[in-house]
């Protein structure tokens, strides 16, 4: 085999670590054999070589994580037999202790969900944990969780086995070849420039680990990725530590333990991690170590020794410190780069490159070859950072210390990052803070989550899986929306102005619903891909003949903009403008919404003059605002799109005018509880690219017969032709008022597990927890099957009777929104 640099390849992969070799392996498996891997030094020389090699799932909270984990574990288990190269794969099992009731709740919920996806988990007693891991101290443990099929592998050997497998299928792997830049032409990647010459390529993949940020920046791609110091200590040989000792992860001490040559390897994910080389990662850093900071890390080691006391005096072989890279939201950076077609990214695996490399390699290989991702990509798609945010040196310096512990410790509903806050604040932020808002964070936005009576009370006293201190204040917001009127700052919603002579053609081509409508009409629609999977759900408002407003959630900002721009044809003239930061969106909802607006506007707001799903420019005091009569809470109401310049004045006017009507500020918790009582869907939360509008219950917004069709029309027509689906989204309400739903709780029909809740909240009007989720059944899920079935939801190990419904349990006839 020649080591000469080729002049062309179907795919060039930049980086010879775990993810790069996994991708090459999977591309060749799919028949793309003209694949070249370029490694600046030697294979594994970045961070792969010093990875711990654990193959353990912790508590996985999404379908895609479970699917990719199980795929990867099974692949690694059979890799040696397939390639003939030893991998060191070993399955001694894995333990997680729960020392608090809150951690026990999290683990019980997570165990049921993971078992559903083929990750075997059993709750065991502290005594059983001690029997399996005899050097551990479980005196504080309430229960532990045993994963019998999990284990470890040798990172270097496993990567070499993948490389051998890729080579057998035709891939070429060239070491000591430094990629200097990505070559582009007319918005596409067309090859790479190396220190040995150029290679043209149909696809270029950035899989350069912690160097990916710097390489991407040269091509105008925003890859927020920061290296941090990662420590592990290796003890001398210890009695009771054998190769068959299970792996143990302890979220209480932010440490993990496994056998290493007769001693223990003790790894840390400490809560004050140190960023490493914020400005740039040195190009010549290979098989490198960082001088350990004993003063900083010693207190964390002492905490870890509480779990294995004998380790403290066992003797030290090595304290290792090496870099691992992390993203600001702890999700990978995978997918086609926004703004540069045929340039793909496979980076940001957050210290889980060995564990998640096979699954991500498989998913991205299919994405490249087939044109779509086979798993839910809404959390990890790299285009979520298309706006260029969360990547300044100051931001990375502030956020990184929190990331290691956040990825490893206990997790709670409604928990937000605490560092690097305030990146995106609406014009109303100060007003809302003074009014008692507690802010959560999403995609850089400060979101009012709920409102306390006073500013001093706007804090979470203790995170919990139960009712927290803000519960009753949120319930009052919910009741105000159903009985009086609320104001919601929804400025985080992404707003795009799409205009030009071909704007209508573009939007109609990507929309399942008909958007070639009269001026002033608001259209709810889904966007789908060629196989019918969701790519967005949003509203399109026609402002004029050639001008439209597209409104979508903040979690879909980058993806929505990227999807639009990619589908503008070469012969079309369309201008897409991101107007999000210039518009403050104030939602006015509730039975008294019309009464409130009539106090501040001379516009005719009657149902006849301003019907549901229409838009008009109206006056509010001194100001002109665009008002959309839509709802995401199931009540009469309007979205007011206010120029940011006038936002505070409009808000103050509404608040003052609504004082006699019982107006209240309301936050995201109330938005969630209101919308789930109404069973409204949300792309990226409860539907994703692997779901379709027909099975999700949104067929009413799919116009299969509209002129010229739309992207994905034929796929949805085929799904529709099959008749009543066997996989269908339903709404659920617990018949018992106390338990809470958050998502991932199992759905049980007539004693058989048939699905899981996608997202849940508490329905204060309905009187119990509510949620929506897909149900898979052997028969078509007709109304009779749904209504006659015996339904239960498994909540932290307890089966709770539930009501199931195809229609919204609250106001199924849409009477309240049309009054």
Automatic annotation (TrEMBL):
Alphabetical list of InterPro entries matching this protein: FAD-dep_OxRdtase, FAD/NAD-bd_sf, FAO_M, GcvT/YgfZ/DmdA, GcvT/YgfZ_C, GcvT_C, GCVT_N, TrmE/GcvT-like
GO terms of molecular function: oxidoreductase activity
Keyword Zinc: no
Highest taxon above the source species: Bacteria
Domain (FAD dependent oxidoreductase central): residue spans on this chain: 370-426
Pfam families reported for this sequence: DAO, FAO_M, GCV_T, GCV_T_C
Keywords associated with the record: Oxidoreductase
Domain (Aminomethyltransferase C-terminal): residue spans on this chain: 728-811
FAD dependent oxidoreductase domain segment(s): 11-367
Occurrences of domain GCVT N-terminal (ranges): 428-706
Xref: PANTHER family: AMINOMETHYLTRANSFERASE, PYRUVATE DEHYDROGENASE PHOSPHATASE REGULATORY SUBUNIT, MITOCHONDRIAL-LIKE
Family: Belongs to the GcvT family.
Protein name: 4-methylaminobutanoate oxidase (Formaldehyde-forming)
Provenance organism: Lutimaribacter saemankumensis
């Amino acid at each position: 085999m020649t080591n000469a640099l080729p002049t062309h390849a179907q795919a060039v992969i930049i980086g010879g670590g775990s993810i790069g070799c996994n991708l090459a392996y999977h591309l060749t498996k799919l028949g793309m054999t003209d694949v070249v891997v370029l490694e600046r030094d030697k294979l594994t020389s970045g961070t792969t070589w010093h990875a711990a090699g654990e193959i353990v799932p912790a508590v996985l909270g999404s379908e895609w994580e479970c699917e990719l984990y199980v795929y990867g574990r099974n692949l690694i288990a059979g890799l040696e037999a397939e390639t003939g190269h030893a991998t060191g794969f070993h399955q001694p099992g894995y333990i997680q202790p729960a020392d608090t009731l809150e951690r026990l709740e999290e683990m019980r919920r997570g165990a049921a969900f993971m078992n559903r996806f083929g990750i075997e988990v059993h709750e065991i007693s502290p005594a059983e944990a001690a029997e399996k891991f005899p050097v551990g101290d479980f005196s504080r443990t309430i229960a532990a969780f045993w994963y019998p099929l999990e284990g470890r592998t040798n990172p270097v050997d496993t990567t070499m086995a993948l490389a051998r497998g890729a080579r057998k299928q035709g891939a070429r792997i060239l070491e000591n070849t430094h990629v200097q830049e990505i070559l582009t032409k007319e918005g596409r990647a067309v090859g790479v420039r190396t220190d040995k010459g150029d290679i043209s390529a149909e696809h270029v993949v950035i899989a350069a680990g912690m160097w990916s940020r710097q390489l991407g920046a040269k091509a105008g791609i925003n890859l927020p990725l920061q290296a941090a110091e990662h420590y592990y200590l290796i003890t001398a040989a210890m009695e009771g530590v054998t190769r068959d000792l299970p792996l143990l992860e302890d979220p209480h001490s932010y440490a993990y333990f496994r056998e290493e040559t007769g001693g223990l390897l003790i790894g840390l994910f400490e809560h004050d991690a140190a960023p490493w080389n914020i400005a740039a990662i040195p190009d010549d850093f290979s098989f490198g170590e960082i001088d350990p900071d004993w003063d900083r890390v010693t207190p964390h080691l002492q905490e870890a020794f509480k779990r294995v006391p004998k380790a403290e005096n066992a003797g030290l072989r090595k304290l290792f410190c090496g870099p691992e890279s992390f993203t600001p939201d702890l999700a990978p950076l995978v997918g086609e780069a926004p703004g540069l077609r045929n340039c793909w990214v496979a980076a940001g695996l957050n210290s889980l490159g060995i564990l998640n490399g096979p699954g991500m390699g498989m998913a991205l290989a299919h994405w490249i070859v087939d044109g779509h991702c086979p798993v839910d990509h809404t959390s990890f798609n790299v285009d979520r950072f298309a706006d260029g945010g969360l990547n300044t040196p100051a931001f990375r310096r502030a956020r990184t210390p929190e990331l290691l512990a956040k990825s490893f410790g206990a997790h709670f509903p409604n928990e937000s990052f605490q560092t690097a806050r305030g990146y995106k604040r609406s014009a109303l932020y100060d007003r809302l803070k003074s009014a008692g808002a507690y802010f959560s964070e999403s995609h850089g936005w400060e979101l009012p989550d709920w409102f306390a009576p006073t500013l001093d009370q706007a804090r979470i006293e203790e995170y919990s899986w139960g009712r927290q201190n803000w519960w009753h204040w949120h319930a009052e917001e919910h009741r105000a929306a159903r009985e009086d009127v609320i104001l919601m700052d929804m400025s985080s919603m992404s707003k795009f102005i799409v205009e030009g002579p071909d704007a209508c053609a573009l939007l109609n081509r990507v929309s399942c619903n008909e958007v070639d409508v009269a001026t002033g009409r608001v259209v709810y629609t889904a966007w789908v891909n060629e196989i019918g999977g969701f790519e967005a759900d949003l509203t399109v408002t026609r402002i004029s003949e050639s001008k439209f407003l597209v409104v979508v959630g903040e979690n879909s900002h980058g993806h929505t903009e990227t999807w639009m721009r990619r589908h503008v044809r070469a012969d079309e003239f369309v201008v897409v403008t991101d107007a999000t930061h210039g518009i403050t969106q104030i939602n006015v909802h509730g039975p008294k919404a019309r009464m409130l607006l009539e106090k501040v506007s001379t516009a005719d707001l009657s149902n006849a003059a301003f019907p549901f799903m229409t838009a008009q420019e109206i006056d509010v005091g001194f100001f002109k605002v665009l008002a959309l009569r839509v709802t995401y809470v199931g009540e009469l109401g309007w979205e007011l799109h206010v120029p940011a310049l006038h936002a505070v004045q409009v808000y103050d006017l509404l608040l003052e005018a609504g004082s006699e009507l019982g107006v209240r500020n309301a936050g995201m918790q109330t938005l969630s509880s209101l919308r789930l009582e109404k069973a409204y869907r949300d792309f990226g939360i409860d539907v994703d690219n692997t779901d379709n509008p027909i099975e999700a219950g949104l067929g009413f917004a799919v116009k299969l017969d509209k002129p010229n069709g739309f992207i994905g029309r034929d796929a949805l027509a085929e799904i529709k032709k099959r008749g009543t689906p066997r996989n269908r989204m339903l709404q659920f309400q617990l018949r018992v008022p106390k338990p809470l739903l958050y998502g991932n709780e199992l759905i049980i029909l007539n004693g058989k597990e048939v699905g899981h809740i996608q997202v849940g909240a508490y329905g204060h009007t309905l009187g119990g927890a509510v949620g929506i989720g897909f149900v898979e059944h052997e028969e078509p899920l007709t109304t009779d099957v749904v209504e006659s079935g015996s339904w239960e939801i498994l909540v932290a190990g307890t089966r709770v009777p539930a009501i199931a419904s195809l229609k919204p349990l609250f106001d199924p006839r849409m009477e309240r929104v049309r009054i």
